[in-house]
Design brief:
about 400 residues, alpha/beta, Rossmann fold, 2 domains, six-stranded mixed sheet, four-stranded parallel sheet, 16 helices, 14 strands, about 45% helix, binds pyridoxal-5'-phosphate
Length: about 400
């Protein structure tokens, strides 16, 4: 079994580039250039230097002593929450903006739902002095006022998407329309391992720094460069893809993906794509997605904005269908409980997304000798309103 993308952009049955003819030129230009540029020494030097000096990498692999005692096993947290801007997203944003510059693009466009990808994009555009336009659903602009303020302060223009449900998918449509209209000078920056080939592969490569660091950190701490299990939450799947990347062909490592069950998979308030989704095309890629009998995308639900996505990247659809990945779910409530527990045991307030990965600890039987890595994708500052509202003790 192979878990890398093939020449046509497929992971097994999933992936590809299902795009309108008007986008062909843009996507093809990217496909023709991305590997050569990002594998060059010059690119790698600049990328690694910014990750070190600007983002603050390597992030620690922290042995969580009290959490380990509670579950009678060895739990390590990969601290992506300590990155500049508070999550793993900036690894990808820096990578793509460096690529855009080398392709002589002057204008960066992106869509955002909760605003986290928008903030990471606006941050790096400020750093690189590039024009930045963020498309965001009108409804989301109202719901996510602090992130909208951050983007504006960073110099980005936030353009409202006013059609349809006025949320993420409508913002995506607006961004694609912009890209079609401005093929020469504009770079479309996607925030997860989704979209047409080569985006899923490219984003996975930029996030693979997570498992690259884990290897040497595990040697130092455990004497072996791999853990027994890696646990990561999955929205589109980029933090999980980065945490799994260098272990996908090592079958001694169990890869555990945690989706957001929302209120439960038997309700229609869920974002557990592999459990309730079916095969189809979303955002230019063949994958699993939540859709009705007419093939229209259904609205997902999760308490965490970053997992509130109706699809999953094609790599994860392949990991699921092939059985290489173990897919489990955590409900809104289970994620909240896990967040309060981590806060009290370790003094770390996790992002609500990452709390879904932490909730998996209650669903698995561990041996005392095992080493578990949980990818702590982000910090919880942005979720304080929810945490305080839901706190019952
Ligand atoms: C955006 C986000 C996610 C979900 O996105 P993936 O592409 O699945 O990683 C998870 N955690 C945090 C903190 C996020 O900001």
């Amino acid at each position: 079994m192979n878990y890398e993308v093939n020449e046509q952009g497929f992971y097994g049955d999933f992936g590809g580039a299902f795009i309108p003819e008007m986008l062909y030129h843009n996507v093809n230009e990217l496909k023709e250039n991305y590997l050569q540029i990002i594998e060059s020494n010059d690119f790698q030097d600049e990328f690694k230097d910014l990750l070190k000096e600007y983002v603050g990498r390597p992030t620690p692999l922290y042995f969580a002593k009290r959490l380990s005692e509670k579950y009678n096993t060895n739990v390590f947290l990969k601290r992506e929450d300590l990155n500049h801007t508070g999550a793993h997203k900036i690894n990808n944003t820096i990578g793509q903006i460096l690529l855009a510059k080398r392709m002589n693009k002057k204008r960066i466009i992106a869509e955002t739902g909760a605003g986290q990808h928008g903030v990471a994009t606006a941050t790096v555009c400020a750093l690189m002095n590039l024009e930045c336009i963020i498309y965001m659903g009108e409804v989301d602009i109202k719901r996510q006022a602090p992130n909208v303020a951050r983007m504006k302060m960073l110099g980005a223009e936030v353009r409202p998407a006013t059609s349809g449900s006025k949320t993420l998918k409508d913002a995506t449509n607006e961004a694609i329309r912009d890209w079609i209209a401005n093929p020469e000078d504009t770079y479309y920056l996607i925030g997860s391992v989704v979209g047409p080939h080569p985006y899923p592969d490219m984003v996975a490569r930029f996030q693979s720094i997570i498992s690259e660091e884990m290897k040497s950190q595990l040697i130092e701490k455990t004497g072996r460069d791999y853990p027994d299990r890696i646990i990561a939450c999955v929205g589109g799947g980029s933090n999980a893809a980065g945490a799994f990347y260098h272990y996908s062909n090592n079958d001694k490592v169990e890869l555990i993906a945690v989706e957001a069950d929302g209120l439960g998979i038997t309700t229609n308030k869920t974002a557990a794509t592999t459990q309730v989704g079916t095969e189809g095309i979303i955002h230019g890629s063949k994958t699993l997605l939540m859709q009705n009998s007419e093939g229209q995308i259904t609205e997902p639900h999760s308490i965490s904005a970053g997992l509130d996505y109706p699809g999953v990247g094609p790599l994860h659809a392949h990991l699921f269908k092939s059985g290489r990945g173990t897919f489990i779910g955590a409900t809104d409530k289970e994620a909240l409980t896990a967040a309060y527990q981590l806060t009290r045991l370790e003094g770390i307030i996790p992002a609500l997304e990452s709390s879904h990965a932490l909730a998996a600890l209650d669903k698995i039987e561990f041996k005392p000798s095992e080493n578990i890595v949980i990818n702590l994708s982000g910090r919880g500052d942005k979720d304080m309103e929810t945490y305080i509202r839901e706190m019952s003790y």
